[in-house]
From TrEMBL:
It is found in: Membrane. Pfam families: PBP_dimer (PF03717), Transpeptidase (PF00905). Residues 595-653 form the PASTA domain. Residues 708-734 are annotated as: Disordered. Pathway: Cell wall biogenesis; peptidoglycan biosynthesis. GO terms for molecular function: penicillin binding; serine-type D-Ala-D-Ala carboxypeptidase activity. Its EC number is 3.4.16.4. PROSITE patterns: PASTA. It is an enzyme of class 3 (hydrolase). The chain crosses the membrane at residues 12-30. GO terms for cellular component: plasma membrane. This is serine-type D-Ala-D-Ala carboxypeptidase.
Length: 734
């Protein structure tokens, strides 16, 4: 007989299983009806699992020069990766994973410049660890189109590419501190300095997105439910920089850097009537496409205040004229000038030039004369007001990041004197340029700017545009004209510190030289020695109505015993200013000895030498013929090039011989070097005195040539004048 317990247990189990079944069935029914599990939608979860979401990066805007030449733009490169998961291959006849590790490693190694073993190890490691794909480090990133096509031609299975944007600078080392740099953060390009940083919010754009449903093999479904949000690409920024003017500056600075190895250099070219910066450069600089070791991150033109030296005398002179205390014929005793417990000395060893007029004092850059103008005639308090009117106590607010203003030091009696000739008080080149616009622009001082306009990338609609802005009138129009007249004599007068140094061929120049002492932090004074100065020039041309203003400074160049500090500065100024004025079609204001004609280089290919040379002469060109061959081998200018009859034309014959280089300018020698790809070395500066290959000797391309250069003769007193700061300008008494 069964026990009562035995009879009840089956019933209990039936109830339990029935209850569990009802619970599970109810749960399934609930899920089916509601479509949710723990508050999560099953449909949404499924869609999420089988939906690919991708970011569509916005293209960063392009930075252009004023004429639409790209200075910084987005450039597409490629990152290589390899799929090693066999499951990605659906058809064995068309493998989509790396099938042969050894072959893949062998063929990729020379293109990626990697060891075969390194590539094979990465592939095998990915396979053994059951990874879907592997990458190959920095060597497989930022591949160009040529490398990509070379790898694609190998037809290696499993090898794929991802497009990646980088920032590319077409001109390399070109206004690098001004244009700026970018960096990548989470695959997004951000500007970090220069215009790239200053205008980042405009340039960066807003990313878009794309989403679609896929199968387990990552292939789109027939109905992928694709959603695309287009990116809003970054805006384009146009600068006031002119690529051709900037190239003139970069080339000149590079030549000076190579020959003189200075510690620092700056150069700025500005439109005198608008405040637009046409060129701005510093040395040392860097190539933003390949940074390497950067010696100087600062944009010195706007961010490095220094004691400007005698270029400050421009504004002391203008203040005296405006105040009505300037009489060019008044005389003073040069040499030394005592104020309180300090003695000011002129730059020629404190000897001076006897009793001279104030006009001659400006021409000779007399510290004594300018100090007496500021301290005695204008008065310290009134002179300070002029300095403030010229905005030497504030930033220019140029549209670049990192500007640092100089300081007017005016607390002690000595500072009230030395500020007049640019010592003690500090300023930046851009502050000097801004103040100089008042001299060049009828007394109206302009705000310097470098960003011309911002355009919508798609519609080309102007979003923002900069207009010239007058920010002050420290002097009258009449004073500005008188100041220009005096500054022109610094160049034209035989007494002038710029005479025979800063003259241009076709244009008059008004300007002021500067030789500023450099503070010596270790010895609590100023550095001594011939080279330990900041040599500079601030010039405006044409003199009577300046269209361009240019400032050049060269700090501590390596000079020969016979060279003055003005040599590297004048090389930059003359090359850039003369050629920029011509390029901008500014009418020459000097009377030409003969009319300037524009002619076209005739076709020279397959021409006989004599007939071609005669044709050039008929056009008014006196070519330099290299050799005595019967046929023209090459000409330094392409056929059809339009030139003036003053430009140098080199004609190489099929039997080249060395021409006589004596008297050639350094610029012509460089053109000769580039024309024949010569291995050139040189000593000194100026014009050719000696050459290593004798005139008439056989000459071949890539030959080695050494030339010795020398400066033209300069009167002894003028030679001294080019070094305006003595080691003992100021002497303090106990």
């Amino acid at each position: 007989m069964k026990s009562k317990k035995t009879q009840i247990m089956p019933t209990v189990w039936i109830v339990i299983f029935t209850t569990l079944f009802l619970i599970i069935a109810g749960r399934f029914l609930y899920i089916q009806v509601s479509g949710e599990v723990s508050g999560v939608s099953i449909q949404q979860l499924a869609d999420q699992k089988r939906t690919n979401n991708y970011n569509i990066p916005a293209s960063r805007g392009t930075i252009y020069d004023r004429n639409g030449m790209a200075l910084a733009q987005e450039h597409i490169v490629y990152r290589l990766y390899a799929i090693v998961d066999e499951s990605h291959t659906t058809n064995p006849l068309y493998p989509k994973h790396v099938k042969d590790v050894e072959e893949t490693a062998q063929k990729l190694a020379p293109i990626l410049e990697m060891d075969e073993s390194d590539i094979a190890e990465r592939l095998n490691d990915g396979i053994s660890n059951e990874r879907f794909q592997v990458e190959f480090g920095s060597n497989a990133r930022e591949l160009n189109q040529e490398q990509k096509e070379e790898i694609e031609a190998l037809e290696l299975s499993g090898i794929n590419f991802i497009e990646e944007p980088i920032r590319f600078y077409p001109n390399g080392m070109f206004a690098s501190h001004t244009i700026g740099l970018t960096d990548k953060q989470d695959d997004k390009i951000f500007g970090i300095n220069g215009v790239e940083g200053f205008m980042n919010d405009y340039l960066i754009g807003e990313d878009g997105s794309i989403s679609y449903q896929r199968d387990k093999f990552n292939m789109k479904l027939l109905d992928p439910k694709e959603v695309i949000n287009k990116p809003d690409n970054g805006d384009d920024v146009y600068l006031t920089l002119d690529q051709k003017v900037q190239t003139l500056v970069e080339d000149a600075l590079s030549e000076v850097e190579e020959e003189y190895d200075p510690d620092r250099m700056t150069a700025v070219v500005m439109n005198a009537k608008t405040g637009e910066i046409l060129s701005l450069s510093n040395r040392p600089s860097y190539n933003p496409n390949s940074i390497g070791e950067v010696q100087n991150w600062y944009n010195d033109v706007i961010a490095t205040p220094f004691e400007p030296g005698s270029t400050m005398k421009i504004f002391t002179l203008a203040s005296a004229i405006e105040e009505g205390v300037w009489n060019p014929d008044d005389e003073f005793q040069s040499g030394t000038y005592k104020v309180g417990n300090i003695t000011i000395g002129d730059h020629n060893g404190r000897r001076g030039w006897g009793e001279i007029s104030y006009l001659e004092g400006i021409q000779r850059s007399s510290n004594v004369g300018i100090a007496k103008l500021a301290y005695e005639k204008i008065g310290p308090d009134r002179f300070l007001e002029y300095l403030q009117d010229f905005d030497f106590d504030k930033k220019t607010d140029i549209d670049l990041p990192g500007e640092v203003a100089g300081r007017i030091l005016y607390n002690w009696e000595s500072e009230k004197v030395t500020t007049a000739f640019g010592q003690g008080t500090t300023t930046t080149p851009i502050q000097l340029m801004k103040a100089a616009t008042a001299i060049a622009n009828d007394g109206k001082m302009l705000k310097p700017y470098i960003i011309e306009k911002t355009l919508d990338h798609e519609t080309k609609e102007v979003i923002a545009e900069h207009e010239p802005e007058v920010v002050g009138e420290p002097i009258s129009s009449e004073t500005a004209k008188k100041t220009l007249e005096v500054l022109e004599t610094v160049i034209t007068s035989e007494n002038g510190t710029g005479h025979n140094i800063y003259n241009l061929n076709d244009y008059t120049v008004a300007g002021k030289t500067g030789t500023a002492q450099i503070p010596d932090s270790e010895n609590k004074g100023y550095k001594t020695g011939k080279e330990n100065y900041v040599f500079s020039f601030l010039g405006m041309a044409p003199a009577d109505d300046p269209k361009l203003i240019m400032y050049v400074s060269v700090k501590e160049p390596n000079l020969d015993q016979t060279e003055s500090g003005s040599a590297p500065v004048s090389f930059v100024f003359k090359n850039v200013m003369e050629n920029s004025l011509r390029y901008l079609n500014i009418e020459p204001d000097k009377e030409a000895t003969e009319p300037i004609e524009v002619v076209e280089i005739p076709v020279w290919e397959d021409k006989q030498t004599d007939s071609y040379v005669n044709k050039l002469k008929d056009l008014g060109i006196e070519p330099i013929v290299i050799g005595d061959g019967e046929h023209v081998k090459k000409v330094n200018l392409e056929s059809g090039t339009k030139i003036t009859t003053r430009q140098t034309v080199l004609v190489a014959t099929d039997n080249m011989k060395m021409p006589d280089l004596k008297g050639w300018s350094f610029r012509d020698v460089l053109s000769f070097r580039d024309f024949l790809d010569l291995d050139l070395e040189w000593m000194g500066s100026g014009y050719v005195k000696k050459q290593s290959i004798e005139k008439g000797s056989s000459l071949n391309e890539k030959d080695y040539l050494m030339v010795e250069l020398e400066e033209p003769d300069v009167p002894e007193d003028q030679e001294n004048a080019s070094d305006e700061s003595g080691d003992d300008e100021i002497e303090e008494e106990e």
